[in-house]
Amino acid sequence: MKILVIGAGIGGLTTALSLAKAGFEVEVYESSSEIKALGVGINILPHAIRVLTDLGLLDELLKIGVQTSELCYFNKFGQLIWREPRGKFAGYIWPQLSVHRGALMMILLNAVKNAIGSDRIHTGHRLKKCEETSGKVIATFSLKGNDDEFVEAEGEVLIGADGIHSAVRRQFYPDEGIPKFSGIILHRGMTTGKPFLSGSTMIMAGSVDQKFIAYPISDEIDENGDQLINWIADLRVGPDGNILRDWNRTADKPKLLSIFGSWKFDWLDAPGLIGGADAIYEFPMSDRDPLPRWSFGRITLLGDAAHPMYPIGSNGASQAILDAEILTESLQHADPAAALQQYENIRLPQTAAIIMQNRQMGPEQVMEIVAERAPNGFTDLYDVISKDELEGIATRYKKIAGFEKEELNAKAK
Ligand SMILES: Cc1cc2nc3c(=O)[nH]c(=O)nc-3n(C[C@H](O)[C@H](O)[C@H](O)COP(=O)(O)OP(=O)(O)OC[C@H]3O[C@@H](n4cnc5c(N)ncnc54)[C@H](O)[C@@H]3O)c2cc1C
User: Fold this and answer.
1) CB of 308 sitting under 6 A from ligand 1
2) CATH 2.60.40.1080 given to domain 2-38+101-178+291-359
3) Using alpha carbons only, how large is the chain's radius of gyration in Å?
4) Phi, psi torsion values for 377, nearest 5 degrees
5) Are the CB atoms for 6 and 29 separated by under 8 Å?
6) d(Cα 282, Cα 284) in Å, to the nearest integer?
7) Residue of the nearest CA to atom 16 in ligand 1?
8) What spacing in Å lies between the alpha carbon of 100 and ligand 1's midpoint?
9) Ligand 1 site, residue 178, Cβ cutoff 6 A
């Protein structure tokens, strides 16, 4: 069976690899003229690392990433609210990895090239439309941004893994419009700085209106004793502050420094990280409402095209990777339309629940609760929030997002 995968992001490439390994004929179509190592840091959770391990990628991933040992939440005064071990340090069979998105992309791209051959990865192909006719899917592409030149491709199934602005999704939902803006702008940067806490800790400080997130994405320590740290500074700008969704749009460093200037804690120097970044990128935090359906006959959606979500709980890329596994399994056991329906039946409700949870700030709710109840800080945390409340929020989110430890470990082959 020939399957057309539209989009060569983390979702599309993982899907192409997974399908090829299962014996399907795969062609990948990507609108960019070159698949580059773009982006900054990204977290991959143990449930998605399990899938990538089954695809034979774990050894390479361990070389490029940091095994996240713990996740800590603080208030804006740098007081600890919650600390939990992560990945293998928490007893999972698989690690949680903090990686450079570009490095992960290159591992996936090489694996796909080895599996299907470079000539089946068609860059410079922007999908314009797709339609199903008599047991086939016909996709029409414009070539290298030229809207006068079109080519067609034919397959038996088409997977729309073409991101939050998906052309495949737009075809089925033409009136949906632009993504829903949260009112928050994310400022993203990478800086070499002194290792903080365990040297492999992911931290979040503050609350939804102003938050700082940091985690190392390389184990290498340079001659100054520094390591590469990925950071994100969130700022609420209100509903009218939306900006164009462009991963390469640069931000105003002096303005950001003036806002985060006092966030210098004895365990982390946030203004130092902001000041030391070569480039800072700004990006709107947005998502889309869950859809009633993804699959239409032999065509379906996957990854951000299907379920774009706020980057809360480090789940976006991980959920795209989980989609790839279920889609492959479904196609192995049923005819195309039934398989795509089965994939949707499993994955749509799971990801819809995460979209809605992330709008309530997912596991980061604990930071909101503490900021509300103790806006000037606290002497004893448990006077503000009980241990049970803290643990309940963390446990509930893991269940919803599909990485509850016992359930996940039981999937080991
Ligand atoms: C350039 C870039 C940089 C990113 N950087 C970060 C980051 O630093 N940190 C982070 O957490 N997340 C980042 N992300 C987002 C993150 O990778 C995704 O949210 C997540 O991995 C889900 O992946 P996806 O494959 O579903 O979608 P995406 O990663 O968005 O991939 C979709 C792919 O489809 C292609 N495409 C779009 N329209 C068409 C079309 N009509 N025809 C053919 N191809 C099309 C796009 O060029 C893209 O390669 C980035 C995404 C991109 C595209």
Assistant:
1) no
2) no
3) 21
4) 95, 180
5) yes
6) 7
7) 317
8) 14
9) no
Three-class SS state of 383 = helix
**How much is the pTM?**
0.95
Distance 265 CA to ligand 1 centre (A): 34
Residue with tokens 């992960």: 104
Backbone angles phi, psi at 254, to 5 degrees: -55, -40
Which of 14, 53, 340, 283 lies closest to 168 in space, CA to CA? Answer: 340
Q: State whether the beta carbon of 348 lies less than 6 angstroms from ligand 1.
A: no
Segments of the chain scoring below 70 in pLDDT? none
Tell me which H or E stretch contains 131: strand 125-133
Helix (H, G, I), strand (E, B) or coil at 113: helix
Q: What are the domain boundaries of the chain?
A: 2-38+101-178+291-359
- Residues 67-119 pLDDT 10s: 999 999 999 999 999 999 999 999 999 999 999 999 999 999 999 999 999 99
Given a contact cutoff of 8 angstroms between Cβ atoms, the answer to whether 65 and 99 are in contact is yes
CA separation for the pair 248, 281 (Å, rounded) = 6
Structure-token pair, residue 346: 């499993």
Contact 318, 359 (CB under 8 A): no
